[in-house]
Amino acid sequence: MRRIYFDNNATTPLLPEVFVAMRPWLESNVGNASSIHHHGQEARAAVEAARESVAKLFGCRPAEVVFTSGGTEGDNLALFGILKAGDHLITTTVEHHAVLLAAERWREMGAQGGEVTFVPVDGCGRVDPEDIRRALRPNTRLISVMLANNETGVIQPIAEIGEIAAGAGVEFHTDAVQGAGKVPLDVRALGVSLLSISGHKVHAPQGVGALYVRKGTKLQPLFYGGRHERSRRAGTENTPGIVALGKAAEVAHAGLTRGEDARLAAMRDRLEQGILAQVEASGVNGGGVACTITNHVPRVPNTTNLYFDHIEGEPLIIALDLKGLACSTGAACSSGAIEPSHVLTAMRLGGERARGSVRLSLGKQNTDEEVDFALELIPQTVARLREISPTWRRAVAQ
Ligand SMILES: Cc1ncc(COP(=O)(O)O)c(C=O)c1O
């Protein structure tokens, strides 16, 4: 069966050129980047070349790049590496769990932890920088606001918040896991002191990532061991993963320069508009037509989050998967109950609408022809599920 993958915000396929770059480090190259012999030197050179490539993507110095195991580690290192007992943290209600649950943990740590303010977002999923300013306290040490939301693709006003953080003398972290490769990441223009990315969201493998740490930022490591990564992240470097991330960063940077983001946005917009035109009682969550006109909400070019009234997202995902189309809901299944997404709930979507939402996220490998296929399949599948939906039948009978 033909399989189409529209779940690139969950993970992206490895690019062939990324695989070619990392392959020798899996197959024949043996070096530990800390060893002083020939093999070690080769590994060190490969790691440092990758650091330069990631630094180019960030617009920073190579020494400001710390390799990690992925987005979750980068986010946790940014929070727990900066905060000291009694400190106040400002974040938002729509962060990825890697920040949200780390922040909750900080609040629960008693005397060893501190305070947290979770700033709400508007109905389009955007945080108001003035709300961040109002949340500042004398003991605020860190602000952490994501660059782009993983469920809706909505981009936060990072540069404005960066100015507020700088004015208040507060460190500023952004989780840029969903922004990398989709929008330019100029750390100076964004005004951030910390920025995390994850390899597997930019066509590198799972289990590698990077954290930008501005020169002079005092960061406590999470792990103790060797003096790797200038004592900011102990543990033997994951050379194959790091080499892959370096290549993926180079490809991402070149793609942005070439206008790959415009190609993705055109495909996403055709998909979104095509579905909305064919399916009644559907709409976009965050950004999209309604939010763009009224609030100018920008989104990353590859993501659309759509609601379909009178049906549930989970059966829709399953029905689409049976026909070969992979996408996802923001809902997490815990203890047997489907919880509506915390992001959509924070945007004040009702539980029913939040449960009837799905996310389609495109990637470099997707084609116009695949969009055509989805434009046939999705409206048909929604119509089929609505036929057996009691609330839909009642609505059309009226
Ligand atoms: C916005 C965001 N932050 C952090 C993460 C976690 O990254 P990783 O899977 O590399 O730990 C993800 C992954 O979905 C994400 O989308």
Q: What do these coordinates show?
A:
- The protein is globular.
- A 7-stranded mixed β-sheet has the order 2-8-7-6-5-3-4, with helices on both faces. Strands 9-10-14 form a 3-stranded antiparallel β-sheet. A two-stranded parallel sheet has the order 1-11.
- It has 16 helices and 14 strands.
- It is of the alpha/beta class and 398 residues long.
- The structure holds pyridoxal-5'-phosphate.
- Pyridoxal-5'-phosphate binds next to α3.
Keywords:
2 domains; Aspartate Aminotransferase, domain 2; three-stranded antiparallel sheet; binds pyridoxal-5'-phosphate; 398 residues; alpha/beta; seven-stranded mixed sheet; Aspartate Aminotransferase, domain 1
